[in-house]
Design goal:
By secondary structure, the chain is α+β, with helices and mostly antiparallel strands. The chain is built from 3 helices and 4 strands, in the order αβααβββ. The protein has one domain (18-95). Belongs to the MEIG1 family.
Length: 96
């Protein structure tokens, strides 16, 4: 299951309608964790700020592979899960 955002959403300056915290780990929560570690809400905000159409993901897992922070340094992520159980409740899920 891929975590995809349409190109249309990434172009417009879309703001989330609501937010809640993750209750349990999933592929989507894993990718949100990676975006939030790098200083973004989610894939939508990352694409808006960095003006990119795609995010580099691991083909095996679909998890985000590499993100560029706002200060232009890079975060590199493993193929495996990085969001530990104790971190799951900190991940914010934005609803558009």
């Amino acid at each position: 299951k891929k975590f995809e955002v349409s190109g249309v959403m990434a172009k417009a300056d879309i703001k989330p309608k609501s937010v809640h915290h993750a209750k349990e780990w999933s592929d989507v929560v894993e990718n949100l964790y990676r975006f939030q570690q790098a200083g973004y809400r989610d894939e939508v905000e990352y694409k808006q700020v960095k003006q990119v159409d795609t995010v580099e993901c691991w083909p095996e897992t679909g998890f985000v592979k590499k993100l560029q922070r706002r200060d232009n340094t890079f975060y590199y992520y493993n193929k495996q899960r990085e969001c530990e159980e104790k971190e799951v409740h900190k991940v914010k899920i934005y609803v558009y």
